[in-house]
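Is this the right way to post structure tokens for a design question? Let me know if I should format differently. Anyway, here goes:
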């Protein structure tokens, strides 16, 4: 099982694909999302999103935003 991850800004799509794990810069510190994670919404601060894919890790810089996790779908609305 894998996660579907979308990281989008008002200007463009920064990442869209599948992952085994996603690490996010939350306002309370770093946290990680794995498959079958409970649904959540959380505020994000500036930092890097780490996306673990079958080809290795990818990093996407964001300037804050929010994340929604539901049904193995991770959607980041970034600034």
């Amino acid at each position: 099982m894998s996660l579907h991850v979308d990281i989008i800004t008002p200007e463009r799509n920064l990442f869209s694909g599948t992952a085994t794990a996603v690490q996010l810069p939350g306002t309370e510190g770093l946290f990680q999302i794995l498959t079958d994670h409970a649904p959540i919404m959380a505020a994000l601060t500036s930092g890097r999103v780490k996306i673990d894919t079958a080809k290795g890790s990818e990093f996407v810089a964001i300037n804050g935003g929010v994340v929604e996790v539901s049904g193995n779908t991770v959607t980041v609305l970034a600034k």
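Format looks fine. Someone answered above. Worth noting: The two ends are 29 Å apart (CA to CA). The chain has no helices and seven strands.
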